[in-house]
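Appendix B. Chain record.
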Amino acid sequence: MIQTHTSFKSPRPEQQDMAVAAQTVSVMVAVAALWLFVSPWAYGFSIEASSWNAWGIGAVMFVFSCLRLLAPMHTSGFSRMNAALAVWVFFSPWIYGYAQQGPRLTNSLSIGVFVFALSLVSAKASTSQAFRS
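Structure tokens predicted for this chain:
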């Protein structure tokens, strides 16, 4: 017996635009996550315990961003997770006790704010009404 199926509908232009927006933001978050990952070597603190924080959070953010690139219409939860991780990165100078080290403090605050803002934009782009129709 031959079964028929409905053909795949091509996405509407506004859906494509929102997907491209989510992917573009995800690329920027991935670059920031890579910088967070290499920052212990760049700032010379790779032998300190706080370097594991940068390596772990940077790697997880990078993976979440890559998953967003693969399926932006269905993975907005990863953007929300990156936003939560960005809050952690923002407060990590006080948690790990390096708030007195200017460059590292600036790096953590900058990455935290940057990733938080972009992750919210990415999550909003993929959960907008353009994707729901």
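Further analysis of this model is presented in Appendix C.
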